[in-house]
UniProtKB/TrEMBL annotation:
<dbReference type="InterPro" id="IPR050328">
    <property type="entry name" value="Dev_Immune_Receptor"/>
</dbReference>
<keyword id="KW-0732">Signal</keyword>
<dbReference type="InterPro" id="IPR032675">
    <property type="entry name" value="LRR_dom_sf"/>
</dbReference>
<dbReference type="GO" id="GO:0031012">
    <property type="term" value="C:extracellular matrix"/>
</dbReference>
<dbReference type="InterPro" id="IPR001611">
    <property type="entry name" value="Leu-rich_rpt"/>
</dbReference>
<keyword id="KW-0433">Leucine-rich repeat</keyword>
<dbReference type="Pfam" id="PF13855">
    <property type="entry name" value="LRR_8"/>
</dbReference>
<protein>
    <submittedName>
        <fullName>Leucine-rich repeat-containing protein 38</fullName>
    </submittedName>
</protein>
<dbReference type="InterPro" id="IPR003591">
    <property type="entry name" value="Leu-rich_rpt_typical-subtyp"/>
</dbReference>
<dbReference type="GO" id="GO:0005615">
    <property type="term" value="C:extracellular space"/>
</dbReference>
<keyword id="KW-0677">Repeat</keyword>
Length: 251
């Protein structure tokens, strides 16, 4: 791993160095010293990525990255809590290689650009400002297994448009008030988190029919009637589906 402390990069300045990696190492982490938080806006784009030697893994911590351009050769990117407002993908004809993307705790409102990230397997979008999602955003993400949209406003979003390949779906505290069971269908989903939403009713049998592979579910913190909650938990128990702390709320 190559750790770069307090990196300065101006896209308008001529390049002075291109990073060369030792064999079998291709991981860059851009940080600042623990006592210093960078006030400089760091432009992450394909040009900087090339200067860094096109690492397979790129992580940025404790910087302000308002505009983030995903390089097409990047395989794993972590950009949590770096004030990302705009997300784009490097222009080109090759399919983006990105398989893992962490954008937790940023300022994103639109994420339509992820539609081209067809090799994506893990996507973390927790704690942003997402309130709209184009139905086509996830249409071609057939490899996506893990999706975290917790702490967003999904009250006007249909959760039936996510990839059928999902194994883990986190919708914790996403202001959901209803589920469309008629179109809900995730045959591979094993983990579902619906905690701390606004769901007044959950149709247990319909949910299990839509999610035949379900192993773990979280439904605590919704305005469910006590009897309804108890019945749902009994159903989960009979199917050997874990529900952890929800039993405390039913007693």
């Amino acid at each position: 791993i190559c750790i770069l402390d307090s990196l300065h990069y101006n896209p308008n300045e001529p390049p002075q160095m291109i990073h060369n990696f030792p064999p079998n190492q291709s991981h860059v982490r851009i940080v600042t010293r623990p006592s210093v938080y960078s006030r400089e806006v760091l432009n992450i784009n394909a040009k900087l990525y090339a200067l860094l030697g096109q690492p397979e893994i790129l992580e940025v911590f404790d910087h302000a990255v308002w505009d983030l351009q995903i390089p097409r050769a990047l395989k794993r990117g972590s950009f949590p809590h770096v004030y990302v407002r705009n997300l784009t993908v490097e222009p080109g004809t090759d399919s983006p290689a990105l398989a893992y993307l962490d954008l937790t705790n940023n300022y994103l409102r639109k994420v339509s650009s992820i539609a081209s990230l067809i090799n994506l397997e893990v996507l973390r979008l927790s704690d942003n400002f997402i309130s709209t999602l184009d139905p086509s955003t996830f249409e071609n993400l057939t490899k996506l297994r893990y999706l975290d949209l917790s702490y967003n406003d999904l009250s006007q979003i249909s959760i039936t448009n996510f990839p059928k390949s999902l194994i883990h779906l986190n919708l914790y505290k996403s202001q959901l008030s209803s589920l469309n069971y008629a179109t809900l269908n995730y045959p591979s989903l094993e983990v579902l988190n619906l905690e701390r939403n606004d769901l007044p009713f959950i149709d247990g049998p319909a949910l299990l029919l839509a999610l035949p592979s379900l192993k773990l579910v979280r439904i605590g913190g919704n305005p469910l009637e006590k009897y309804d909650l108890q019945q749902i938990l009994l159903l989960f128990q009979r199917r050997n589906i874990s529900f952890r702390n929800e039993a405390d709320e039913a007693t």
